[in-house]
Amino acid sequence: MSSVFKALSDPTRRRVLEILQTGPKTAGELADEFEFSKPTMSAHFAVLKEAGLVDTRRDGKSVIYRLKLSVLEDALLGFAQSFGIGNQAVRQGTSDPKSKEEPGND
Amino acid sequence: MTDMKQSFLLPLSMVTLVVLLGATAWAREPDGAIAFAIAIFMLPIAWSIIEWRYRGHELDESGREDLATVRYSVAGAALMLAVPLAMTLFISFGITATLGDDLEKRAMGVIFGILFLIYGNYTPKRAVSLSEKGCSPAQRQAQTRFAGRAFMLTGLLYTLVWMFAPISWALPLAMAVLISGVGLVMLRALTLRNRSKGE
Q: Is the ipTM of this structure higher than 0.95?
């Protein structure tokens, strides 16, 4: 459960989930929505996958991401989004999933 | 392949359990023969038709995911039948006799409502198939999310009805809640299917 909270505490990852709410997307389509580098996005995707909130399927050369949110996790996402949890960490530049400081711990 | 095997074995074991529970309940309570007969035969027949329709088709990954989703739904439906059948047997064997008639009914209703609520919560947890058959993956995902919310709300209302409504009103009210919730999900699915056919 803590991995779910960790995944939802970052606004970038929440944005990824929001995009996936409109339907499955390729990794490229998702990355196009952000200005981050590919490794940063991959790290965000890895956190989401580890928390069991997304699922991947290889389709030829592309990787397709699919949403795996229970109703409660969906509500938690909406709650975190409404209260802007972790937004300050982004402004301070500590939301990189590879950074030592845990995102959202501001 | 492992997922396909698991997706077959899980509904198989659940349906077998329903048949066994239904047959035992039928033997113990011959008055409820029609209800128990429906419980026993409905799922095996429906599932056989589904498997027969998929038989002989060379399935790609999306097709296998579709079939696995249907099989898991059969397992879910079997669980929904197994729990009230098991509770009927508990009552029939006098295990819950100390609770008294009203409390016994309320307990059954609350347990079923909570089960429905949990089932609804996990309904959208399974990733949707990427198959374009019937509707787009995005539409399928939207339908699954809608179903999850509707089932969860139905389970919650069903539980509350059995907890707080007067006992003489509880059954018709709970049935109205259940039929409305499931009917709404089915109606949306049919609308989606017809719209996709028209496109």
A: no
